[in-house]
Amino acid sequence: MSPVAHIPSRRKPRRTASSWALRTGVAGGVLSTLAVTGAAAPASAAEKPAESTLEMPTVDATLAASISQSADATQQTAHAYQVRAEQEAAAHQAKIQAKKVKDEADRKAEAEKKAAAAKKAKAEKEAKAADEAARASRSAGRTQLSTASASASSSGSAASSSSAPSTSHATGSAATLISFLQAQIGKPYVMGATGSSSYDCSGLTQAAYRQIGIDLPRVSQDQSTAGTPVSLGNLQPGDLLYWGSAGSAYHVAVYIGGGKFIGAQNPSTGIVERSLSYSQPTGAVRVM
């Protein structure tokens, strides 16, 4: 290739005057068209009939009254519903309260019923225990009485089978008194009896002292003050012994010497001879 080769130019070729004029004319036509169109548009808009609008009803007095009545009715209905709801709620609450009161009353009644039943059971138990105790006491009393009777019978039999009563060193009236008393041993004790087959305590002493010409009062209370009081440490055969207070004695017997006495003791033993240690007397009087 030749060093001086032709290099094509990159510059655009100049437009010619005719091309420029042509482009200018076209642009002007376009602008004119736009201007005409813009001028015509307002006119068309002005000539287009207006669209119809929605008219609101006129609020007159009748409509206002109707609206007011409807509002009042709605308010009254709402108030009635509210009152009814409140009444139903109050009734429900009253029902709940009444149930609580009833449940509490039932609970108290049941508790009182149980307490009464327990009290009754306790009373029955105590009455039963008291009855059993009374029965046991009566049984023990009968047993003791039977034992005492057996012992008295044994003593009476021994005294009866004895060849002779206890020896007494008494003389004179005392000996006569004691001899009479010894002859009565083994006879029964009978309340109010004064001889000759049975005696009570004061009946026997009265009959015995009558043997020696001494008339004693009938009952033990009076006999306990009929003579001169003597101490139990200074007794002599023929002294009258008493149990209880002087003037209100409940039992009497006669001292026969040797630390012994003879008396009508009780219905179980009858007339017996006993040692002073068997039943210590309260006091004594000397009537001879």
Primary descriptors:
288 residues, alpha+beta, endopeptidase fold (from Nostoc punctiforme), 2 domains, six-stranded antiparallel β-sheet, 5 helices, rod-shaped
Task: Report on the architecture of this protein.
This protein has 2 domains: 78-163; 166-286, endopeptidase fold (from Nostoc punctiforme) (Alpha-Beta Complex). With 288 residues, the protein is an alpha+beta fold. The chain contains 5 helices and 6 strands; from the N terminus they run H-H-H-H-H-E-E-E-E-E-E. The protein has helices at 17-47, 61-161, 173-184, 201-210, 220-223, and strands at 228-230, 240-243, 251-257, 260-266, 270-275, 283-286. Helix 3 (173-184) packs across helix 4. The chain has a 6-stranded antiparallel sheet. The radius of gyration is 73 Å and the shape is rod-shaped. The model is unreliable at 16-22, 30-37, 39-51 and 141-164 (pLDDT under 50). The longest helix is centred in the middle third of the chain and has 101 residues, at 61-161.
